[in-house]
TrEMBL record:
Compartment annotation: Mitochondrion matrix
Assigned keywords, A-Z: GTP-binding, Kinase, Mitochondrion, Nucleotide-binding, Transferase
Residue span, Adenylate kinase active site lid domain: 127-162
Keyword presence, Transferase: yes
Positions that bind GTP: G15, S16, G17, K18, G19, T20, R127, S200
Domain notes: Consists of three domains, a large central CORE domain and two small peripheral domains, NMPbind and LID, which undergo movements during catalysis. The LID domain closes over the site of phosphoryl transfer upon GTP binding. Assembling and dissambling the active center during each catalytic cycle provides an effective means to prevent GTP hydrolysis.
Protein name (database record): GTP:AMP phosphotransferase, mitochondrial
Length: 229
């Protein structure tokens, strides 16, 4: 059933391909991708109070307090993404966040990526990002056109502080601890669609086929990835 507005969530452990699959969804459908991690990193870059608070948790691989991230996400959904198709990446990460989201919006679906830990740990080692846009690259899987530089701006790529192996281990542990109840919350509501695999290129066609039944492709073009100023 194609509903008027698409409101989706994509879940998965760090490095599972949420950003990769989300950008393909944004290219294939009229959907704007909003990453809670990108929002938080933008706050840190701007040196806001929220950014200073969030950085203390992010650098340890721990979740940022619910009220802080809820405020940032809801502000975007009620303004720049009002009446638009959107896909949330990395939010909700707790049941409390899921309940708050449910009070504000009814979701079309929740996609969950199941990728083995050994694949994730190897992948994140070679993840490079363009801090300003959140675009991600990978030495083998998605290399930049010019080594070390962002394809769009030509600015230097960096590795995230929280992508260090010991922090990734913490984030993986925290994801497993927190996500079980969030996945159950959505499974009980018949919203959860799980995709298991080792490569994004094998998962993507299954995601694309599933979303084709939910998203109306004919709608006017909307912004692909919310530019977080
Ligand atoms: N080798 C390989 N790397 C991938 C694959 N999918 C994504 N990546 C890369 O692995 C890293 C993590 O992917 P990302 O989409 O950022 O995952 P997220 O943390 O869940 O958003 C990035 O550097 C991606 O470019 C894949 O199928 N194979
Ligand atoms: N919904 C959220 N609730 C609390 N903290 C969050 C949330 N989303 C992101 N964060 C914080 O930002 C960090 C980076 O998130 P993210 O960019 O989604 O990582 P990845 O995409 O690699 O899984 C997380 O480790 C966590 O500290």
């Amino acid at each position: 059933m194609i509903s008027r507005v698409f409101r989706g969530v994509i879940m998965g452990p760090p490095g599972s391909g949420k950003g990769t699959i989300s950008s393909r969804i944004a290219q294939s459908f009229v959907v704007t991708h909003l990453s809670s991690g990108d929002l938080l990193r933008a706050q840190i870059q701007e040196g806001t109070i929220a950014g200073v608070q969030a950085s203390q948790y992010i650098e340890k691989g721990e979740l940022v307090p619910d009220d802080l991230v809820v405020q940032l996400i809801l502000a975007e959904l009620h303004t720049s993404l009002k009446n638009k198709n959107w896909l949330l990446d990395g939010f909700p990460s707790t049941v409390s966040q899921a309940k708050t989201l449910q009070k504000n919006f009814s979701l079309s679906c929740v996609l969950s990526l199941n990728v083995p830990d050994d694949v994730i740990i190897e992948r994140v080692k070679n993840r490079w990002v363009h801090a300003g846009s959140g675009r991600t690259y990978h030495i083998q899987f998605k290399p930049p056109k010019v080594p070390g530089l962002d394809d769009v701006t030509g600015e230097p790529l960096i590795q995230r502080q929280d992508d260090k192996p010991e922090t990734v281990e913490t984030r993986l542990r925290n994801y497993k601890k927190q996500s079980t109840s969030v996945l159950e919350f959505y499974r009980e509501r018949g919203l959860l669609q799980e995709f298991t695999g080792r490569e994004s290129n094998e998962i993507w066609p299954r995601v694309q086929a599933y979303l084709s039944s939910l998203i109306d492709k004919k709608q006017d073009k909307s912004v692909k990835r919310l530019k977080i100023t």
